Here is the input.
Amino acid sequence: SYIIWGLTCHAEEIYRYIRETYPRAKLLAVVDEYENAPFYGLQPIKSAQVKEYPSALLLITPTSAKSYVEEKAAQNPEWGARLYMTGEIKR
Here is the structure.
């Protein structure tokens, strides 16, 4: 189970790759503080709602969001692991 954080140009590529390579993986939610358009049938949620998915891997697409995400993660220790597009993984 995973969540895509940030509906950037990379979100589409990541979603397609995972869907084709790992067909049993489940996209639970997409997080975007500014975008409201549905992404493959999912309405974007805000970061405050990530706590509803404690075991999901967070795939963070915008590299500029790292400090914001880490700040939020420090306040929400129940969040799952975070994978950044740089390849860095945080738990």
